């Protein structure tokens, strides 16, 4: 009877070890999948960050161009250009050549 009791305990220990091993393997698989998903998300975010930084630079350049145009519109040269192109006005000492 003592031998039968030991065999039963060994079988129970083996079954317990198998269950614990199965749980550990399952956890490892789940964690590996989550790590891969997070890595993919990180790559997507890095690509998006790069894209947004490039877009920010473009908008800064555009803002600079708008600011320069605003300064130009306040200048005498802009007023003269508009008077010549829109109204056809010229200075008294200018000679105008027209195509026939």
Characterization of the model:
The mean pLDDT is 89. The protein has one domain (2-84). Helix content is 84%, strand content 0%. It is built from two helices and no strands. The chain is an all-alpha fold and 100 residues long.
Topology, please?
Elements (H helix, E strand, L loop, with lengths): L1 H72 L2 H12 L13
For this entry, give a set of tags:
mainly alpha; rod-shaped; 2 helices; 100 residues
The total strand number stands at 0
Query: What is the overall number of helices?
Result: 2
Strand content: under 5%
Rg = 40 Å
Strand pairing plus helix content: what structural class? mainly alpha
**Structurally, how many domains make up the residues?**
1
Which percent range fits the helix content?
over 70%
* SSE run: HH
What integer is the average pLDDT? 89
Give a quick rundown of the structure:
The protein is an all-alpha fold. The protein has 2 helices and no strands. It is 84% helix and 0% strand.
């Amino acid at each position: 009877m003592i031998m039968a009791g030991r065999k039963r305990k060994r079988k129970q220990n083996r079954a317990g070890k198998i269950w614990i091993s199965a749980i550990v393997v399952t956890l490892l698989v789940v964690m590996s999948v989550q790590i891969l998903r997070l890595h993919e998300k990180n790559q997507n975010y890095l690509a998006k960050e790069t894209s947004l930084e490039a877009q920010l630079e473009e908008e800064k350049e555009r803002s600079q161009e708008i600011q320069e145009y605003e300064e130009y519109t306040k200048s005498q040269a802009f007023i003269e250009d508009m008077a010549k192109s829109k109204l056809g006005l010229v200075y008294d000492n200018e000679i105008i050549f027209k195509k026939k």
